[in-house]
């Protein structure tokens, strides 16, 4: 399974939009960069589906153009005019060459979900590795209307509870690849990064000075 950040070279504010190639070629979030459909076309002629972590503008602004260009199925937790399938906590969905569990993770957004397989997690904005506020374990902002730090904390705890373990005496999870909505990807002990994000969120300190 190959993961390509098709908004990596953006000069405007956007989320990371990940094209996952494989038996079920999937775009995780559409981003907000004009021409993202052309970038996708550099990697594939077909797109089977788009899955949305949530529907903030930086994650879906280019959804219409992607849908027009490739006519894929679209999966989201909440209704959207382009949505062809609604997903719920505990659902299973193919992304690339792996099966992912849908994990409902609100707090940053009421419709936020993450996608977790035995090896990989797409966390959207609930947990990020580095975002300018914190490095090596951060979390989504909760200072805007409709957001909740308390609910976000519960969601991070849910991610930790759902992480598959590596088996044997190894306390590390088998999940070794984390792709977040912002910041860089992380490859290694994902559990430790999520635990660090939880510790920081639980302090209830503002993530940003004006929060």
TrEMBL record:
UniProt keyword list? Hydrolase, Metal-binding, Zinc
| One Gene Ontology MF term | metal ion binding
Q: Please state every residue range assigned to the domain named Metallo-beta-lactamase.
A: 14-169
**InterPro entries named among the record's database cross-references:** MBL_Glyoxalase_II, Metallo-B-lactamas, RibonucZ/Hydroxyglut_hydro
Provide the cofactor list for this protein.
Answer: Zn(2+)
Q: Name one Pfam family in it.
A: Lactamase_B
- Stored PANTHER family: HYDROXYACYLGLUTATHIONE HYDROLASE GLOC
Q: What is the protein name for this chain?
A: MBL fold metallo-hydrolase
């Amino acid at each position: 399974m190959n993961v390509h950040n098709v908004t990596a070279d953006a000069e405007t504010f956007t989320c990371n939009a990940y094209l996952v190639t494989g038996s079920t070629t999937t775009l995780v979030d559409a981003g907000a960069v004009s021409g993202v459909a052309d970038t996708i076309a550099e990697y594939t002629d077909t797109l089977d589906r788009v899955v949305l972590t949530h529907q903030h503008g930086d994650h879906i602004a280019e959804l219409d153009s992607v849908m027009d260009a490739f006519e894929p199925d679209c999966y989201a937790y909440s209704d959207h005019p382009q949505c062809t399938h609604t997903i719920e906590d505990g659902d299973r969905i193919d992304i690339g060459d792996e099966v992912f569990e849908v994990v409902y993770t609100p707090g940053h957004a009421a419709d936020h979900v993450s996608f977790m397989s035995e090896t990989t997690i797409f966390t959207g904005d609930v947990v990020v590795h580095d975002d300018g506020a914190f490095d090596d374990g951060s979390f989504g902002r909760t200072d805007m209307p409709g957001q909740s730090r308390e609910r976000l904390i519960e969601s991070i705890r849910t991610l930790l509870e759902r992480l598959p373990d590596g088996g044997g005496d190894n306390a590390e999870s088998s999940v070794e690849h984390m792709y977040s909505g912002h910041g860089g990807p992380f490859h290694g002990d994902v559990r430790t990064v999520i635990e660090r994000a939880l510790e920081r969120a639980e302090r209830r300190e503002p993530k940003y000075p004006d929060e």
